[in-house]
Amino acid sequence: MKFAAIDIGSNAVRLLFTQVFENGKGVYFKKDALFRVPIRLGEDVFVEQKISAEKAHSLVEAMMAFRHLIESYQPIAFMACATSAMREAVNGAEVVAEIKRQADIDIEIISGQREADLIYLNHIAENLNPKKAYLYIDVGGGSTEVTLFAKGKIVASHSFNLGTVRILENLDPPKEWEDLKNWLREQSSKHKSIIAIGSGGNINKIFSLSRKKEGRPLTYNKVKDIYEMLNSYSYDDRVKFLRLRPDRADVIIPASKIFLSIMKWADIKRIHIPQIGLVDGIIHMLYEKHKQNSM
User: Fold this and answer.
1) Which CATH number describes the domain made up of 2-112?
2) Which pLDDT value is given to residue 269?
3) Where in the chain are the domains?
4) Distance between CA 203 and CA 274 in Å, rounded?
5) b/e sequence 12-27, b meaning 16+ C-beta within 10 Å
6) How far is Cα 109 from Cα 85, in angstroms, rounded to an integer?
7) Can you spell out the DSSP letters for 25-67?
8) Whole-prediction pTM
9) Which of 60, 158, 249, 252 is close enough to 238 for a disulfide, judged by CB 3.0 to 4.6 Å?
10) Could you report the per-residue pLDDT of 55-70, keeping only the tens digit for each?
11) Alpha-carbon distance 95 to 111, whole Å?
C-alpha cells in the first residue's frame, strides 16, 4: 500500500512517499522518497502577518510539482497539512484556494493541537518502556509541540509559539518562554523521571552530528556539546565545513536552544531521536483510516 503526505511548514515544505507492508508480525512503514523545498513562509508571516506574492508563487509552483509526483507515485491516499505560518497568515485561505485552483491539492490548515496529535500517531512510544513517562518534542519553524504521555496514554499536550524562524526574527516574547517553562515544571513534577522523544529536521541533524548508532539516545550533555560546537562556527562556516544546508545552518541554533531549554526545565537526561515528523504522522493516520474503511 502506498501513501503520500505533504507538510507545509514555516521553514520548508515536504512531500513524503511511504509504502506500508503488513505481515503476521505487524506493520512495516518504508519511506520511498522525501522531497523538501526551503520556502520559509514564516519569514514573511511572523513579521508582516501575510505571505508575500513571491513566496505564494514559490509555494504554488512547489505544490504543482508535488501534484505531478503524486500522480506518478499513485498512492492509495494522500493528505496535505499546513502549520504555524499558514495558521497566522491573514491571506492563508487565499493561498490555499490558489493552490487548489492550480495544483488541485486540498490543504488542511491544522491547529497546534492537531499537529501534536498527528505527530503522536507515529506510535514510537509502543516500542519503548510502558512504565516510563515520555515527552514528545517537535520543534518547527513557527511553533513547538510538546506531548507528555505515561502508561501509553496522552497525559497533557500543548503548542507554543516558539519556533526556529520566529526566534531568528526576534519574535519570541519572554512570556512564551515563561509559559513553556511553567507548563513543563508543572507536568514534570507529577512524574519521577521523563525521557524525551525529539522530532524535526534540526534534532535529526544534531543526532547525525553526534555519530551515535541509530536507536541510541542522546544525553542532555551531548546535545549541549553539539550546540556549543555549532555555535562556535559562523553561519558561513557551518555551511562550508560542517556541510549544513544553508536553510539549516541558521535555524539549527535556535532549535538547539529550544530542545536544551525543554530538557533542562523538565529535568530530562536523555532524548531518543527516531527521525520522524509530521509527514510520518500523516502517513500513519492515512493508513489507519484506510484500514477502518476496509473493514
Assistant:
1) 3.30.420.40
2) 96
3) 2-112, 123-275
4) 10
5) bbbbbbbebeeeeeee
6) 10
7) TEEEEEEEEEEEE---THHHHHHHSS--HHHHHHHHHHHHHHH
8) 0.91
9) 249
10) 999 999 999 999 999 9
11) 17
